[in-house]
Design a protein that fits this description.
Blueprint lengths: L3 H14 L4 H20 L10 H13 L4 H20 L26 H10 L4 H13 L3 H5 L6 E2 L7 E5 L8 E5 L1 H13 L19 H15 L7 H13 L4 H8 L4 H5 L19
Antiparallel strand pairs: 1-2, 2-3
Helix pairs in contact: 1-2, 2-4, 3-4, 5-6, 5-9, 6-8, 6-10, 10-11
Length: 290
């Protein structure tokens, strides 16, 4: 019989071999670890011992402990993926999670900053060239924070004559690389930052004062601090990406163009924003500055 801990380890290795996002691997790992701890209290140590009732009892326990439906739904998904893997590997004959249902989760609309809000944020960061460069890139290109963290100086291509600037967004986890237009606002902010960037052999674009790559958590905390300074409430770094997509669609930019620049895998992901904006009848094929 296969022990749950061993199956857990094999499952994590499987996710890594499929190039799943590191955040996904970490979340799935913790979710299944939590499930296994619960099952141990039921004196169940092998994958074949687990029943649908056990899994539902685990979800009920989470509900009593105050977990939101969104969190429980994610843990349900992790559990379903785990046991689906076990069945494919023929560690179990029947999948006890297959009939476990997700709790109802109301999807929140994306937080889209108003023109006044994102201008206030930009103004608040002007005296901090590095953070200003980070904010302008996130807002003007729509790239993800992980993609920004991986940018290198060599990935920048500034405008020259009639040739427009662009950045190369490197492949990130299971996402393909792509080129993204670099407009004047973002280019100007990055150029100012580069004049003050610490001299270092580190190729990463955004570095600390000692020349080491900025960590994602530090980027998040810094921008959250500037959100407060700017008086922008209930916002996170990811909302800059939402704002990029929504505002360009609102200005009439092509759905296909916005989807491509944002790096959405499916056009349907981009289309979801249409429910929260008013879109002009005529499309434009270029992106404007925000």
């Amino acid at each position: 019989m296969n022990k749950l801990e061993q199956a857990h380890e094999e499952f994590i290795n499987h996710l890594k071999s499929r190039s799943r996002a590191s955040a996904t691997v970490l979340a799935y790992g913790k979710d299944i670890e939590q499930l296994i701890t619960f099952l141990k209290d039921l004196e169940k140590a092998h994958v074949q011992d687990v029943t649908r009732e056990d899994i539902e009892a685990f979800m009920a326990k989470l509900r009593k402990e105050g977990y939101t439906n969104k969190s429980i739904s994610r843990k349900t998904n992790s559990t379903k993926t785990f046991f689906k893997f076990l069945k494919v590997q023929e560690y179990v004959t029947d999948d006890p999670a297959s009939l476990v249902t997700h709790p109802k989760v109301e999807s929140r609309p994306p937080r889209i900053l108003t023109k006044m809000e994102y201008r206030a944020l930009r103004d608040a960061t002007r005296q901090d060239p590095r953070t200003h460069g980070v904010v302008e890139l996130l807002l003007q290109t729509g790239i993800r924070i992980g993609e920004l963290r991986n940018l290198r100086v060599e990935d920048l291509k500034f405008s020259k004559g009639k040739e427009k600037g662009e950045i190369f967004v490197r492949p990130f986890e299971n996402r393909e690389g792509r080129s993204v237009p670099l407009n004047t606002a973002a280019e100007t902010a990055v150029k100012v930052y580069l004049t003050l960037r610490p001299k270092t052999k580190e190729p990463t674009l955004f570095v600390t004062k000692t020349g080491r790559p900025l960590l994602i958590r530090n980027i998040r905390s810094t921008i959250n601090r500037y959100f407060k300074i700017a008086g922008v409430e209930n916002s996170t770094v990811n909302d800059l990406r939402h704002t990029f997509v929504a505002h360009h669609l609102q200005k009439g930019a092509s759905l296909v163009l916005v989807s491509k620049v944002a790096g959405h895998k499916r056009l349907s992901t981009t289309e979801k924003y249409l429910a929260f904006i008013e879109r002009p009848k005529e499309e434009v094929q270029e992106l404007e500055e925000l």
